[in-house]
Amino acid sequence: MLDFNSVDLNLLRVFQSIIDERSLTRASQRLGLSQPALSYSLGRLRALFDDQLFVRTTGGMLPTPIALQLRPPINRALASIREVLQHGNQFDPMSSSREFHLSMSDLGELVFLPLLCERLQREASEVKISAQQVPIGEVDERLRLGQLDFAIGNMPSLKASTRHAVLFREPYVCMTRKREGLPRCTLEREAFLAMSHVLVASSESSHLTVESSLQAAGLHRKIGLRVPHFTVVPQIILRTDWVVTLPQRVARLFNEHGGFEIYRLPVDTPEIEVTVHWHEAFDADQWNVWFRNLIIDTLREE
Where do the TM regions start and end (predicted)? Predict the structure, then answer.
């Protein structure tokens, strides 16, 4: 049995950095250590756990099965230590310059960031946000490691592994340029199919669900353009007679100046559920709680 009093807890940080980075060079840079010092610490880790832990391959430092088993409890231990240390810090959002790391799609940035930044300017003007688009398959791990503080969007696959709160639910609609000859209230199935469509090839689950619903209803659209994100879509729709299918809230944002007609889809599709996610290791962290409540109060639709 290991003697706890003889264990250097800094070795846990070394372990976490190597398994995160899969590179001794990047891990040493992350920790501010020389490579010889990191290699010496890795040797101590291997002796401590009586296992190689990491095997050098052409793709980087590959963790052994023992290392993969150790990763969750070591991450939890380090998260707990960080939480304990934060109790000595004064909690004052108005004077803090802390940076929060958020993951959201391009649509999330368009809809959520202006509201969050406006709120922060009023209540904590020195607090910073770093927004990024993290692939859904990486979000859980980055939340667990503290590399992300929150993820916002329609991400049902994360519910089983994260803490989360529902912000709002909304339908998808379709939007096209205002012009003569358009129906006033309802866009019928035939008119919808007669138009050319802009298809945003997003991997978000909500877009995929709507696409599946349209195809299941026999609505095989004529695609005039495929793009990877929504940012350019309003300018394209303004210059063509094409139509795009998108979340209702985004359509209203794009239609701020009244240049578009917005219609319900000609078939029923599931409403999307937008949620904010964080990791349970930070559930009681005072900064996580504060910013989490700010997100919920700002974006939630009662």
Answer: none
* Amino acid 299: pLDDT: 94
Last residue of a domain, one of 63, 86, 109: 86
Residue with token string 């859904």: 136
Amino acid sitting at position 117: C
Mean pLDDT of 251-279: 92
Q: What is the pLDDT of residue 86?
A: 61
% pLDDT > 90, the chain: 51
Average of pLDDT values for 29-41?
A: 90
How many domains in the chain?
3
**Cα–Cα dist 176/197, whole Å:** 9
CB 61 within 8 Å of CB 55: yes
Last residue of a domain, one of 36, 52, 86: 86
Residues in CB range of 36: below 8 A, 6 or more apart: none
Task: For tokens 């050319």, name the residue.
Answer: 196
DSSP-derived secondary structure for 32-91:
T--HHHHHHHHHHHHHHHTS--EEEETTEEEEPHHHHHHHHHHHHHHHHHHHHHHTTS--
Sequence-ordered list of residues with C-beta below 8 angstroms from that of 92, at least 6 positions apart, any chain: none
